[in-house]
Input
Amino acid sequence: MSNTTHFSCNRIQQNGWEEIVLRDEQTQFAATIIPSGGAILNKLEVTHQGKTFNLIEGFENAADWHENKTKGCKSAKLSPFVCRLHNSTYEWEGSTYTCEKFVLNGHAIHGLLFDASHEVEFCEANNFYAECKLFYRYDGSHPGYPFAYDMNVRYRLESDGRLTITTTVHNRSDRTIPISDGWHPYFKIGETIDTAALQINAQHQLEFNKDLIPTGKQIKDERWFKGGKLKDVFLDNSFVLMQNEPLPHCTLSDAPLVLYFFKILFSCTVEVSKYSAIASTLIKVECSNTI
Output
């Protein structure tokens, strides 16, 4: 356990597993991470006018996670692939591979490490932030992905309601590897999604076929560029961010809460024996003056 006057980082054994709690002691803004549960962000709490809001739909305890971890893969880290693999197969450098860890309607989904138990490299706090870094060594043992790599997931909680999640990989195989990184959070904001509003810096979405496999095409979709209510809207889509637009890339709001999302860095392949920060996302939470 590490404490300062401003931030704290605590490792707590409760609910059947270890929980890491990063906290701004002045505002009570806090993030709860589960190392043994795939390094998931299980809670993101903000206190406003004496009321605490948890912005993440997570798991009640370890038993809940073990029973329901593949039902939506809530908050899961997706690696080494995201979305779905058509017929659970892919080609890389002339070879065909089959991944079948979690298959839905005939297609592999959500990668291989969504339930991987991570080691805690460190958990620390100072007057500027609270931070933890988690580690997992993938040994290449799955026949569908025979490429060894290390993965680090770092959570840093800072003042002004900021949480940054950074994934770094180290390729330990003897060749360039195919890899993508994703995060699968379920956000809770307001009493019902019908009162929430969404804005995305995007004017196109990826076209999916009936099995939710990307076709390689884009579809014009400007509904969320200027923002709108989510009432009676069904979304299960991927949007193409416009990098030249002002930040943030996405905003989700429902008074008094506003969540801002910033995608900082992303790359799809990792060169041999090099470290590469392949994904970094910043979340900023703000509260209005009234509920």
User: Anything to note?
Assistant: The longest strand covers residues 275-287.
